[in-house]
């Protein structure tokens, strides 16, 4: 097409205006209420000053409209308010503010619902490619899309219908909401313990990023006389000496309003820095609280007993020695694995 198509009036509504003298189209709303926003995306300037006449590029008309919060939509809102002479400016601004708050709350609740689901299921949030062109933008973004498809109220204010800086899907937003959820859960655990006594279960291990992490679990009896075990937190410890571990425990206790004087039991494995005889974690805590009795981890006790028995029974020793060899031989070949399944 090499000239203006009058059918575009029906397609693009009241904002499109055609100038016969310039043989170009303009945006009425942007022409009347244009402010210098320093943004020329979508050919904004051409629709205000010079006029748009590239008739082959019809898609530029849609690009000019843009998303929520674009210059065109701001000018459109200003024109709409001008036509409604009965509204006082204070009322208009108040209504806009209240509507924005309501939309923000709906959008935030949608993100929180998705994050709660992913946390409960232990699923990863982010994807390898979260660009608009990606076929899979990660669990969180895809779950938000699914929620929008099934909930019209959330769909009206989320993703493409939300302002660019308030979509509530950025990784930093995901982390903030996750930290807030963790804080609420920890607060509920501390409230359930109340002023009662409890025991601590502590273990340390190296994670995939080669950092030493110490996990702390609280064991207590609730108001219904049920024995409860709850994870309190994970602490990175650069130094695994007993004094450093005790200091880390004291820090997480102080953060959550707990005291070492309320401890009535300690449970660790057989590591020398945890449960040895002198200058170890159990001794340092016992120095401050004589009632914090130490109990060697039952699972570790069982493991030690089984290892001792296996060393005395040669048939068991041979069994455990051959198991890795068989697994490696079968696992390295699909044909061998099929033969083993058939037999």
From TrEMBL:
**InterPro entries per UniProt:** DUF4371 (IPR025398), Znf_TTF (IPR006580)
Q: Where is the TTF-type domain?
A: 2-91
Q: Which Pfam families match?
A: DUF4371
* Top-level taxonomic group: Eukaryota
Recorded protein name is TTF-type domain-containing protein
| Protein species of origin | Acacia crassicarpa
Q: What is the lineage of its organism?
A: Eukaryota, Viridiplantae, Streptophyta, Embryophyta, Tracheophyta
């Amino acid at each position: 097409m090499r000239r203006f198509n009058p059918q575009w009036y029906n397609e693009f509504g009241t904002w499109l205006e055609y100038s016969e003298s310039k043989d170009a189209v303009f945006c009425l709303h942007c022409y009347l209420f244009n402010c210098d926003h320093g943004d020329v995306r979508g050919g904004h300037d051409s629709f205000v000053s010079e006029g748009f006449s590239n008739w082959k590029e019809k898609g530029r008309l849609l690009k000019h409209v843009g998303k929520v919060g674009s210059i065109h939509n701001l000018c459109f809102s200003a024109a709409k308010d001008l036509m409604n002479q009965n509204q006082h400016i204070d009322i208009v601004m108040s209504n806009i503010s209240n509507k924005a708050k309501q939309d923000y709350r709906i959008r935030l609740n949608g993100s929180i619902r998705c994050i709660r689901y992913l946390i409960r299921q232990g699923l990863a949030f982010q994807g390898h490619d979260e660009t608009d062109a990606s076929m899979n933008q990660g669990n969180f973004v895809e779950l938000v899309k699914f929620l929008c498809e099934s909930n019209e109220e959330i769909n009206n204010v989320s993703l493409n219908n939300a302002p660019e800086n308030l979509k509530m899907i950025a990784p930093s937003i995901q982390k903030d909401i996750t930290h807030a959820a963790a804080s609420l859960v920890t607060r509920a655990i501390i409230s359930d313990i109340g002023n009662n006594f409890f025991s601590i279960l502590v273990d340390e291990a190296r994670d995939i990023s080669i950092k030493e992490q110490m996990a702390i679990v609280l064991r207590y009896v609730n108001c219904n006389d049920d024995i409860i075990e709850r994870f309190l937190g994970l602490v990175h410890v650069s130094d695994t000496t007993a004094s450093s571990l005790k200091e880390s425990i004291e820090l997480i206790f102080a953060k959550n309003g707990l005291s070492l004087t309320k401890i009535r039991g300690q449970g660790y494995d057989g590591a020398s820095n945890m449960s040895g005889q002198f200058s170890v974690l159990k001794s340092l805590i016992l120095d401050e609280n004589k009632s914090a009795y130490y109990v060697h981890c039952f699972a570790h006790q069982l493991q030690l007993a089984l290892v001792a028995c296996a060393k005395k029974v040669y048939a068991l020793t041979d069994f455990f020695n051959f198991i890795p060899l068989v697994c490696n031989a079968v696992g390295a070949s699909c044909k061998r694995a099929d033969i083993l399944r058939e037999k």
